[in-house]
UniProtKB/TrEMBL annotation, chain B:
It comes from the Bacteria. GO terms for molecular function: hydrolase activity. InterPro entries: Sortase (IPR005754), Sortase_dom-sf (IPR023365), Sortase_F (IPR042001). It comes from Nonomuraea dietziae. The chain crosses the membrane at residues 12-35. The active site is at 166 (proton donor/acceptor), 232 (acyl-thioester intermediate). Pfam families: Sortase (PF04203). This is LPXTG-site transpeptidase (Sortase) family protein. Keywords: Hydrolase, Membrane, Transmembrane, Transmembrane helix.
Amino acid sequence: MARWRSALAAGSVGLTAAACVLLPTAPASAAPADLVIDYECSGTGPSSIAKYAPVRLRTRLTFATDLVVGGALDLKWSLAYKDASRFTSPGYYAGGSVMNIMGNVQIAGAWQNILQPTGATTIAQGLQYDKELPLPAGISDPGLLNKPGVIKIEPKDIVVDFAPPNGEANVNDGNDIDNPRGHVITYGPGWTPFDDRPRSENHIHNDYHETSSQYAWAELKFVGTGVQYVGPRDHEGGPVEIELDGGVRGSVDPSKNAIGDPVNEVHNGGHTLWELNGLPYGEHKIKITNASTRKAWLDAFRVITNKDAVPTDFHRATCKIVSGPVSIDVTVKDRPGPSPTDTPTTGQPSPSVTPSKSPTSTPTTTPPGQNNNNGNNNHHDDRTVADRLVTVHGNVATTTPTATPKPSSGPTATNYVAAQVKKTPFGGVPSGEAPVALQQPYALLAGGSVLLLGSAAGGVVMRRRRAAHAGNRR
Amino acid sequence: MTEQKSLLNRALPGLLIAGSLGGVATIMAGLLAFITPVDDGSDGAVPMAQSGQGGETVGMYNVANAFVLPSVGPGGPNKPLAPAVLSAPPPAPAGAVVAPIKPTAKKAKPTRIRIPKIQVNAPIGGVTVDSKGELQAPPTSKPNLTGWYRFSPVPGEKGPAIINGHVTTKSGAAVFRRLKELAKGDFIYVYRSDGKVTRFTVSGIEQVKKSAFPTKRVYGNVTNSQLRLITCGGMVGANGHYDDNVIVYATLSKKKG
């Protein structure tokens, strides 16, 4: 019995300690919250910037906890790599790539919301395949608070997207010495490399491959939205057939110019012999095949990326918390009190001047056509606030006392001014919707219902069969 | 064979019970996510998304009294985006202002917007208001498309030209994802179908509750050529939509063509 009692005591102490360590959910004081949260990021597929997963991040989330209605919950979230793991460039890009990071912070309690602090960093230099990608120093986002209560602020997943720039990258005909990894042209039999050609021939890297074997082929897998076949114009050339993603897309004859006339040139390199743009961004394969026994050359393929065609999540990595759930309870206090007077008096010594005039003058100036422009649901509030604060602006501008008599001087001479915005829209603009990961769990409900109904139906069928079986035996 | 069949027959009731219990548990998990009391920050029974149709929010009153700025702020690092008092005018120009382009018989259209600081280079389509009078945004299937409000002036002409764009869509970041990074003095270029190129200089930026949208400041008449860029911001409610709007104010500072 004594042994049970001591075990129980030890267990309760252990549980309390665990609760203290694992659930740091505690009412916050006025001191700013400062949370250190570790994440592990992973991606889907070889195109992800986290293909060498997991990439570990150490983040620090800070925000003021003395929140008041009308203020902003302004999250500052700094990010850094925790160890040697890194996001890496999924390809070979010109300068101007962008790393976009979006955090998710769940707010629950008195009201429920999600705040998505975002940040981005532009990578000015060009990127090589697998080169380390920098993180933005921090991400932030203010959310305006408009209701008091105790809320629980809980950081959730972070999403990291890589946006490549517009640009072109040459994939030379040589081996991986002069090409980045994963961007090497594969040659079938029958090709001969020619290096150290004179610069006057304008070949990329002063080299090219040549063949005179019919059906000799060369191919390249690339990620982009377009591709160009680069080679020399030469009178000894013959037709070359071009396939893209397994289908023949055309042919080109380097012994002829753009309008089909034969050329007299010899090894006049650096020409774009054939090109195709407007492909969906992703991995493609171009293959050229010598269609005759005449000569064919390959100097390089030029890969083109149109950043507008890159799906946002193509290179995405998603980061999940690994350092245990963290949340902080914060009390959003109601407005301290009716203190409109403490904001307006910014250095204006004459608040008493306008009240004597404005009670009659401001109402006559503001109503015609102006109040209804604020056509929100907030007419009443708007006016009460404006009444208090307009005096400030009147003072600041110091023109209102002289300007206000004007309307009253000519009550009949009403000037109608055409609105520059011909139809004034109503209220805010719905210019954003949350990424799909934040949607309601419809799939969960549907899946559960199917499982339940399937099991119930199976049970009924089983019982009927058994009953029938028993009846037969009888 | 018969042995296997009898084994299956014996296990079947257990499997069915486990399946139904699993189904109940899954439904309960789904329901829990649904029935958690959701309040998008608005007051009472009027959801924020419908608050434009009457009714008042306590939040609006408090926002306007406690933390509004007397005028639209300049934006920039370490300067929180806060709303300006509703009666505040549009912010003063950040630099030199040039005269507006005069409208011609053949109406031009804006075709492309470029904001070097935040890497925006996007086409401009057209948007209008719906039957409720609310300004629409471009289709979410085209996250890089911005929308010029067709009843507002053409950018470069006198008045406030309105261009909006999404901050995010269901697939992720959209064209105006980084709009909130703009600050006073930054440049915005708008290209027009008549070949003219206009440059606007940012004069201020604010983040406002959609329910307390500064209609007059954004859409009201002005004495020169101005530009308003609008996107969403702030918290995302249970309906998947943002509570706030981020508004950038800019004034025509150069024109070409």
